[in-house]
Structures are given as structure tokens and as C-alpha cells.
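User: Please check C-alpha cell order:
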Amino acid sequence: MLLLFSLSVAAQTSALTAASQHAVFPKGQKATAGNFTGTVWVQPLVDNDSVYNLISGSVTFEPGARTNWHIHPTGQILMITEGAGYHQIKGQPRELIRKGEVVKCPPNVPHWHGASSGSSMTHIYMIPNTEKGIVQWMQPVSEEEYNRSK
């Protein structure tokens, strides 16, 4: 019995190590719950400065995790690097997004994004022209909104 337990633990550790070796960037730090539902990890990649006027980071959403509704004064670009999730612009149907896809979030338009219920999802975000502002957080995405496909 002890041998089976040891083999199981070794297999789980090996799977976790393999998954982290395939990650493009480190998982980062756990995000505060105020602007997210579920468990979300954030890794800053490009700090804001007066030369590039851009911020960028990698965000990992565990299954079912998502942002609140929010807007970006100059828009946002998402590049999905792992998994599958959803993106929705207010008033439009929820869209399925997958590894390898790029999503453009228009300026000053409420939207949300996050993992599907059956998969984690990682994306890189880029927010340009930060001198005009970065993000305005709004209300959480309800379970009904999250689960509604239209």
C-alpha cells in the first residue's frame, strides 16, 4: 500500500513539474479577490514607463475563474497561451477563446474574460497608451452571465 501511495505522489509531482516546465512564464502571485471570481494568478511582464506607455502581464485563471466586468480607456489585447476560456463584450454573446487565439477588447467597452468551467486558461494581456488610464473595474460577472452562451 505504501508503495502504491509513493508511486501516486511521484506521478502527481512529475505531472506538475512537466506542466510548469511547459509554461511560457511563471504563474506569478495569487490575485486579490476584489476584481476576480475564483482563483487567478498574475505575473507582471512589462512595467509601465514613459517610453513605451504599455503594460503587459500573464494571467492564469483556474477553471471557472474570471474577471469582473471592466473597461480599458485605450483597449486591451489578449493572447491566449494555454487552455480555453471565455470573453464577452457587454451586449454581445459570450465567445469561446482557446490557446493560440488573439482577442482585441475595444477602448471604453465593458467586457470580461476568464477560464471555462472545464479548463484553466492563461493569457498575456497588453494595455497600450497607459498615460490615458489603465482599467476601471466594475461589478462581478454573475453565475447566470458566466453560464449564458448568448
Summary: The chain is about 15% helix and 40% strand. The first strand starts at residue 29 and ends at 30.
